[in-house]
C-alpha cells in the first residue's frame, strides 16, 4: 500500500459510478471497434488498495469480470496516482513472462470520470495465508524470492519505464525521510534516516525494476507458485536489493504484537529469506533498514491523514507499535547486523 491510499478510496457516490460506467463503456467501444456493455461496478479488496473496483465487461456474446483501478479524484495524475503508468509496467513485465494481471485497457489521461484508469483481468489466485496452509511457509517464501529474482534480470527496455530516472540509495532515503517528516513520528524517524545517510552503499552498476511494495500480501498464489504480483503504485528503476528489504519487513512485523495486518509468514525469519535469495547479510542489511524507514514513514503519514480527517482509516491507529518498532529495529540492523534482531521474539 502506498502513502495516502486508504479505505475511503473505495466509496463511490451514485453520480460518480454512473459517470465511470458511461466513460468506460464509450472508451472501450471506441478502442475495440465493437459494442461493449459495462455493469456490476463494485468496490474490490479490503479497502487498502486505493480506488479499486470490479466490473463486468460484456462483448461479443461473452462476459468477463475485471478489475478497474482509478486515480484518486481531484489529484494530479502522476507518481503513485498514475495508474496508466502502472499498467504500462505490468504490460511490459507480463510480456517478459512475469506473473501479472493481463492489461485490457489503460490510459494516464483523465478519461474515466476525469481520472486515469487501468482495466485488467481478475486473476484466479489465493492469498499467502491459504498458500502457507496448503504448502509450507518456506515454499511460499521461496516462490516469492523466485519472482524477485526474475524482476532483477529484466533489462530497462523490458520494464515499460526505460528512460525514467534511476533512484539511488540516497534518493530513497531522502524520499521516505521527507514523507516521515510530514506524518506522525517524524522526529523519531529522523535518527534512522540520518544513520542510513551516513552509511549509504554505492549505487548498483546495473539498475533493476523495483516493485517498491513487494510483500506477500501483494502476491497471489496457485499450487505453491506466484500467479500474480499486484499493486505497482511506487514501482521504478533502482537498487536490485530494495525489494528484498520490503519482503524482509514482512518477517519483522511479527515482532510487534499489536500489528493487525501481517504481510507474510511468521515462520520464515529474515536470515532464512536471505539464504533463499543468496544475499550477503551485510550488503542486504542496509536495504532492510531502509525498508523499515519506508514503511514507518507510510504508516505515520497515513495516520496523519486519518487524524486530520483527510482520509479516514482507523487501521493506522493500531499500527503505532509497528511504526516505532520498525524504526528501532532498523537502527539495530544498521548498527549491529541482521543477526542482532531476534526475529521471532516480540520487540
TrEMBL record:
Coiled coil: none
Keyword Glycosyltransferase on entry: no
SUPFAM superfamilies in alphabetical order: Protein kinase-like (PK-like) (SSF56112)
Classification via CDD domains: ACAD10_11_N-like
InterPro entries: ACAD10_11_N, AGP_Transferase, Aminoglycoside_PTrfase, Kinase-like_dom_sf
One GO MF term: transferase activity
Keyword list, A-Z: Transferase
Every Aminoglycoside phosphotransferase domain range: 42-261
Pfam family, one: APH
PANTHER family documented for this protein: AMINOGLYCOSIDE PHOSPHOTRANSFERASE DOMAIN-CONTAINING PROTEIN-RELATED, AMINOGLYCOSIDE PHOSPHOTRANSFERASE-RELATED-RELATED
Protein name in the entry: Aminoglycoside phosphotransferase
Organism the protein comes from: Conexibacter woesei (strain DSM 14684 / CCUG 47730 / CIP 108061 / JCM 11494 / NBRC 100937 / ID131577)
Amino acid at each position: 500500500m502506498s502513502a495516502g491510499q486508504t479505505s475511503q478510496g473505495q466509496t463511490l457516490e451514485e453520480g460518480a459510478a454512473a459517470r465511470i460506467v458511461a466513460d468506460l463503456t464509450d472508451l472501450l467501444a471506441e478502442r475495440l471497434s465493437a459494442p461493449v456493455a459495462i455493469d456490476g461496478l463494485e468496490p474490490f479488496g479490503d479497502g487498502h488498495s486505493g480506488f479499486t473496483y470490479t466490473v463486468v465487461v460484456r462483448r461479443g456474446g461473452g462476459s468477463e469480470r475485471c478489475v478497474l483501478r482509478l486515480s484518486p479524484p481531484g489529484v494530479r495524475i502522476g507518481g503513485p496516482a498514475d495508474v496508466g503508468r502502472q499498467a504500462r509496467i505490468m504490460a511490459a513485465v507480463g510480456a517478459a513472462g512475469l506473473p501479472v494481471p493481463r492489461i485490457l485497457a489503460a490510459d494516464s489521461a483523465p478519461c474515466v470520470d476525469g481520472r486515469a484508469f487501468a482495466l485488467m483481468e481478475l486473476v484466479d489466485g489465493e492469498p499467502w495465508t491459504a498458500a502457507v496452509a496448503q504448502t509450507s511457509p518456506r515454499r511460499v517464501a521461496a516462490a516469492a524470492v523466485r519472482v524477485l529474482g526474475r524482476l532483477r534480470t529484466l533489462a530497462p527496455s523490458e520494464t515499460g519505464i526505460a528512460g525514467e530516472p534511476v533512484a539511488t540509495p540516497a534518493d530513497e532515503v531522502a524520499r521516505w525521510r521527507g514523507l516521515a517528516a510530514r506524518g506522525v513520528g517524524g522526529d523519531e524517524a529522523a535518527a534512522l534516516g540520518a544513520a542510513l545517510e551516513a552509511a549509504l552503499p554505492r549505487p548498483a552498476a546495473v539498475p533493476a525494476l523495483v516493485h517498491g511494495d513487494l510483500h506477500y500480501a501483494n502476491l497471489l498464489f496457485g499450487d505453491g507458485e506466484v500467479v500474480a504480483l499486484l499493486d505497482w503504485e511506487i514501482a521504478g528503476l533502482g537498487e536490485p536489493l530494495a525489494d528484498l528489504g520490503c519482503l524482509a519487513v514482512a518477517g519483522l512485523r511479527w515482532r510487534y504484537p499489536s500489528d493487525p495486518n501481517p504481510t507474510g509468514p511468521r515462520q520464515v525469519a529474515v536470515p532464512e529469506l536471505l539464504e533463499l535469495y543468496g544475499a550477503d547479510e551485510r550488503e542486504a542489511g542496509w536495504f532492510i533498514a531502509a525498508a523499515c524507514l519506508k514503511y514507518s514513514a507510510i504508516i505515520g503519514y497515513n495516520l496523519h491523514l486519518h487524524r486530520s480527517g483527510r482520509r479516514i482509516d482507523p487501521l493506522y491507529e493500531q499500527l503505532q507499535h509497528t511504526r516505532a518498532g520498525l524504526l528501532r529495529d532498523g537502527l539495530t540492523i544498521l548498527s549491529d547486523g541482521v543477526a542482532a534482531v531476534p526475529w521471532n521474539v516480540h520487540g
